[in-house]
Amino acid sequence: MTVQQDAMHAEHLKQAQDHFRWRKDHLEALATLKRAEAALMLHEARIIGHEAEIARHEEQIAHGTADAPADQAGEHARMAHAHSHGAEHHVGLLNAIKAVAAQLEGQV
Predict the structure, then answer these.
(1) For residue 63, which phi and psi values (nearest 5 degrees)?
(2) Mean pLDDT, 10 residues at a time, over the chain (108 residues)?
(3) Would you tell me the crossing angle of helices 3-63 and 75-106 to the nearest 10 degrees?
(4) Which residue, among 89, 77, 99, has the nearest Cα to 47 in the 3D structure?
(5) DSSP 68
(6) What gap in Å lies between CA 36 and CA 43, rounded to an integer?
(7) Residue 33 to residue 48: CA distance in whole angstroms
């Protein structure tokens, strides 16, 4: 090989290594995005469950336990704790997603 061919060969090898590293990074980033999507879906499921419990509790308050069973001991406190805990994660997750969106908008 000539000196020029050696240089081109070395450059090609370096670029190929860059591509492997970038593709690895992309796959890890996609996996992270799937985890974020799953976290949002889980939070939505918990919100729906909490709303159902609120409706049941409101029914029980308004009409007694004939149509809606009474709360189990500590149930209201547990749901209130779950609500505040979910709020903390909601803010952090949405801030992270908004930061990704801002990064993507800056690349256009």
Answers:
(1) -130, 10
(2) 92 96 96 93 90 87 77 78 79 90 84
(3) 150
(4) 89
(5) S
(6) 10
(7) 23
Q: What is the DSSP letter of 72?
A: P
CA neighbours within 13 Å on the CB side: how many for 37? 6
Closest CA to 72 of 52, 83, 57, 61: 57
Closest by Cα among 34, 29, 49, 46 to 88: 46
pTM for this predicted structure: 0.70
Contact residues for 89 (Cβ-Cβ < 8 A; gap 6+): 39, 43
* C-alpha 86 chain-centroid distance: 12
Structure tokens belonging to residue 71: 């709360």
Extract the tokens encoding 9: 């060969």
In the chain, what is the straight-line distance between the N-terminal and C-terminal CA atoms, in Å? Answer: 41
